[in-house]
Design brief:
This protein is α/β, with parallel strands linked by helices and 493 residues long. The protein has helices at 77-83, 103-114, 136-145, 161-171, 196-213, 234-238, 287-290, 337-351, 376-388, 414-423, 453-460, 464-470; strands at residues 4-7, 10-12, 18-19, 35-37, 40-43, 71-72, 87-88, 92-97, 127-131, 153-157, 175-179, 216-221, 241-246, 253-261, 269-275, 278-281, 300-307, 310-322, 330-333, 358-364, 396-398, 401-402, 408-409, 428-432, 446-450. Helices cover 24% and strands 25% of the residues. A 9-stranded mixed sheet has the order 10-9-11-12-8-13-14-15-16, sandwiched between helices. Strands 17-18-20-19 form a 4-stranded mixed sheet. The N and C termini lie far apart (89 Å).
Length: 493
């Protein structure tokens, strides 16, 4: 009698979750209609004998050399910022992003930079680039365009997992780049490349190779139309670092964020500039937006967001347009739609500004994605400016969280935000009032601390003379003063 029996099982094609009986909805990722039958072998119970070799014995944590897992700089400062200092030997990084966003260009540039490093034996570092999406000639063409040709950068076009691992044995690289994990397949597993089973097998094999051979490995991953990483959820659990590469395709700015990092913080963001000649680190991303910031158009406001320890100047635009339908459209880019809806409700309740029968458009300039609530006050100012046709003076920035009652709440990093605004030529700021926050602006930089949304908007739309006159106190603006009849339609400043 066979020691193995085959029982019917069901697997989710999205995340790989297994169940003994069919269900309409996946119990892991909550997707509907993704559970299909997949035969699973189950072994009869048997006694397993564990043998422990000397090399596998547990050791005292004080006896382990932590320097073996130190960060190795990549040559791209912005990548090092996100990774926590660089790559770690034996570490596995998953880099995901939309098609055409520049993932292949980034990792090819990264591979070239890594070959400029030196091995402990004094020889240049070796990088193996495995591509399953292009031919080696196509990759070489891109390398010529971005000047990323190196004698120790090895290319191979493989879609077979066994052959790819064989190339690792032959080249003996310090870093392996796989572009992408969805294109490799194993002959030992059923299914086509990109399927749940194949992705799980490929990822497990690459991670095992990285750990046993102490090779830093970068896996490129695709994203679904919903924006999540394609493949089983276990893929994100197995790797050490998960990064997302994002940006507006019509903009040069690209950003990389770590959503998981076993070796560093997940609060940092790296900025890059993509053009025809390749991709380069942007150490001063705020400068990309200040060169053309002289706008006196209603509906635009400058804010300073904080990405990790980095202050980033951001422009927030809003447009309210009349519509014939009973309920207007809400279109948001670069921010959370639910947050915008909340701010619209607060403006209507506390300021008398209604978005009924209006289409509302809110966007961040340059493809920047903002998730922190410190942008609330700038969004409210842009919405108010568009609704009342009043412009914010170009020399003013604002930031702060807005509560449902219209109160302003302090945000962290005020000193860094003010320093960034001062460096870029701004001379005024409206921020939430706080008794516990200590900051010191540069001479000539005026900071007004407001307690409520009406008070803050009154100062945001004030002229510089009115701003100086109101320091250190300000009369609260009323909803009537911000109505279409009560507010001037000409920009101030």
């Amino acid at each position: 009698m066979s020691s193995k029996t085959r029982k019917p099982a069901y697997r989710c094609t999205e995340c790989g979750w297994m169940t003994a009986k069919w269900v309409g909805r996946c119990g892991e990722c909550q997707a509907w209609g993704t559970v299909v039958e997949s035969g699973a072998e189950t072994s009869t119970p048997r006694t397993q004998v564990s043998t422990i070799s000397t090399a596998q014995r547990a050791r005292k944590i004080s006896d382990i050399d932590a320097t073996l897992a130190r960060h190795q700089p990549t040559g791209l400062p912005e990548m090092d910022r996100v990774l926590g200092g660089g790559l770690i030997a034996g570490g596995v990084v998953l880099l995901a992003g939309e098609p055409g966003i520049g993932k292949s260009t980034l990792v090819l540039t990264l591979g070239h930079q890594l070959t400029q490093m030196t091995r402990p034996d004094g020889h240049p570092a070796r990088v193996l680039y495995i591509t399953g999406e292009e031919s080696t000639a196509q990759v070489r063409m891109r390398a010529d365009r971005i000047t990323a040709v190196s004698e120790t950068l090895y290319l191979t076009a493989e879609t077979d997992l066994g052959h790819a691992l064989g190339q690792v044995e032959t080249v003996d690289p310090d870093v392996v780049i796989l572009d992408s994990v969805q294109t490799l397949e194993s002959a030992d597993v059923d299914g086509t490349a990109g399927g749940v089973n194949q992705i799980r097998e490929v990822a497990s094999a690459m991670i095992n190779m990285a750990k046993t051979r102490n090779i830093a490995t970068i896996l490129i991953g695709h994203v679904t139309k919903e924006g999540s990483i394609a493949g089983p959820r276990v893929l994100e659990h197995l790797v050490d670092v998960v990064c997302t590469f994002e940006g507006d395709r019509h903009s040069r700015l690209r950003m990389i964020r770590a959503v998981k990092n076993r070796y560093g913080s997940t609060d940092e963001v790296g900025c890059f500039e993509l053009d025809d000649h390749g991709i380069t680190s942007v150490t001063d991303p705020s400068g990309l937006f200040t060169n053309s910031w002289h706008s006196t158009i209603a509906g635009t406001t400058m804010s300073v967001s904080l990405e990790g320890h980095r202050p980033l100047l951001t422009e927030i635009q809003a447009l309210l347009a009349q519509t014939e339908t009973s309920s207007g459209r809400r279109t948001v880019s670069g921010m959370e739609t639910s947050r915008i809806n909340m701010l619209l409700a607060v403006l209507e309740r506390r300021m008398g500004i209604t978005a009924a029968k209006r289409d509302v458009y809110v966007s961040t300039v340059g493809g920047i994605r903002i998730s922190e609530p410190a942008s609330d006050l700038a969004v409210a100012a842009s919405l108010t400016g568009s609704a009342t046709d009043r412009a914010v003076d170009p020399g003013l920035v604002t930031f702060g969280e807005v509560g449902l009652t219209g109160e302003l709440r302090p945000v962290p990093g005020i000193q860094r935000r003010i320093n960034e605004a001062t460096r870029l030529g701004f001379n005024r700021a409206v921020i939430p009032a706080s008794r516990n926050t200590v900051f010191q602006p540069e001479p000539g930089f005026l900071v007004y601390q407001a307690s409520t949304l009406p008070e803050a908007l009154g100062m945001i739309f004030a002229t510089r003379a009115e701003f100086e006159q109101a320091m250190p106190t300000c009369q609260q603006v009323t909803p009537q003063q911000l109505s279409d009849n009560g507010m001037s339609t000409s920009p101030t400043g």
